[in-house]
Amino acid sequence: MHEVSLMEQTLHIAIENARQHGSNKIDRLKMRLGEMSGVVPEALQFAFDALKQGTIAAEAILEIETVPVICYCHRCQTSFHPAHLFYECPDCGELSRDPQSGREIELTSLELSEQ
């Protein structure tokens, strides 16, 4: 389960960032996960709940935004959300080899406070 190691790294980054800003409590972490990232949001949430115990994020909430796959069709010169795994343009049927989003794994924000 790579979600555990991913969350370990994310919490490490969050805690270091909080300390650099003089905070001793993390209230909320916000992440963006692309549909193609290979990360299962429920498993990431489970890892977060387990790993945050005993840290300055022990009472924090994890918010996960799912980023859809958006592809670009060079023939039609348009972006589209593929209907299935093959990233086929809905207008011309050409397979897109140019996903523009959907691979993200980002820690986008932290809400910090002092106890």
Q: Radius of gyration, rounded? A: 18 Å
Given helix and strand content, the structural type is: alpha+beta
As residue ranges, the low-confidence spans are none
**Order of strands side by side in the largest beta sheet?**
2-1-6
> How large a portion of the residues is in β-strands, by DSSP E?
25-35%
Mean pLDDT: 95
Shape: elongated
Order of helical and strand elements:
HEHEEEEE
Tell me the number of strands. 6
Largest sheet: 3 strands, mixed
The share of residues in helices is 25-40%
In short:
The chain contains two helices and six strands.
Describe the structure.
With 115 residues, the protein is an alpha+beta fold. The chain is built from two helices and six strands, in the order H-E-H-E-E-E-E-E. The strands form two sheets. The protein has a three-stranded mixed β-sheet with strand order 2-1-6. A hairpin with a 4-residue loop joins strand 3 (70-73) and strand 4 (78-80). Helix 1 packs across helix 2. It starts with a helix and ends with a strand. The mean pLDDT is 95.
How do the helices and strands line up, and which of them pair or pack?
Elements: H1 2-20, E1 25-34, H2 41-51, E2 61-67, E3 70-73, E4 78-80, E5 99-101, E6 105-113
Parallel strand pairs: 1-2
Antiparallel strand pairs: 1-6, 3-4, 3-5
Helix pairs in contact: 1-2
